[in-house]
Amino acid sequence: MLLHPSLTSPYTGPPPLKAVAKMKPNEPCWCGQGMKWKKCHKGREDEEPFNVFNVEDDARKRGRKGYCSHSLEGQGCSDKIISSHTVQRAGGLAAIAEGKSRVLTVKPNLRSLMDHDGHPPPTQVGMGKASVFPGFCEAHDDTLFKAIEGDDVEFTADEALLFAYRAIAYERFTKAVQVANARIQRMMDCGQPLAMQEAIQQHFHLLEVGARRGLAETERQLGDFRIRVEGQDTAGLHYRAYRFDRVLPVVGCGGFMPEIAIDGTHLQRLGRGTAALEHLTLTITSYSGKSVAIFAWIGPQRGPSGRYLDAFDSIDSDAKADALIQIAFEQLENIFLRKSWWEELPDEQREDLTQRIQSGIGLNMRSPGYYARGEPLLFEADTVESRGG
Predict the structure, then answer these.
(1) What's the pLDDT tens digit per position in 201-245?
(2) Could you write out the DSSP letters of every residue in 36-100?
């Protein structure tokens, strides 16, 4: 068992900001953004209050600007950047869609966050818009992922590599948007007194520093995966894959840095030390009427990700689907749900999952990462196959 260095490292976050009422005009502003005071916070309290919905509009616009994750220089790319599905439309999404090919998304908009005290319920979205991001050109999207777009998968290391690559590409894209959106978030203190400016800047400064480190870590991972995919090299890749006896009501794709295993074991601490943090990717989809879940990571077999999955493996076969759904809500935002399943859940289970959706984001502290067996189970399914490497 390998203990991650961050578990014993000191906090490495930035020092607190201290607002200054008056500075030399060309002096770097106290807020830490790198601009001159005269171009930044001079007279900020006299400016018009900022429209917070501009932050959402900016993020939406940035989210439409695509690139090919496989070749940032455009080598071998086609001219067209497409809306690439992180979960295949024909299998995973179609299996849970209802009505007019619609699913539920947990991705909130600002209005719903405000109306529901930071914990909005899922909303409907068309299947064609679910799970997409402009992260690959048409040529690479068609060729790279062909092996996992068919009627079934065999749980090979080559397949796990492709699932992980797409998940990391998605995470890199979303983190880049978050970092680019940070500057406009800092405008939310316009028209506020100095003390409130300091509080707002401190909050978003911490978020930006964390986002920049997360982006740097994810870019490192993406580069590693890109090289491996190009060379069809699975050395050092580890994965665990599970097949269930029916279609689960949840699909999703993404990556996260496992901090706490579902049995409460601490694995690594974000914002501590300078050691590289380990990523774990997860894809939940379905083939031939049965859901599959594929976890994958690059790193030591017995590091944070391996130990995270050891805890998952200790759960009974008939409850793994229950635990997987809790993990998906806790760790991923790129998940989609079957509407009828969600509406039929008991109120207390919907409340628990809704709390998990925003876990670790903003002022919502991450829960202990525990697994509590559903009573009743969130979904009854048995694990009929598992494999790893």
Answers:
(1) 999 999 999 999 999 999 999 999 999 999 999 999 999 999 999
(2) BGGGTTTTGGGSPPP-THHHHHHHHHHHT----TT-TT-TT--S-EEEEESS-IIIIIHHH-BTT
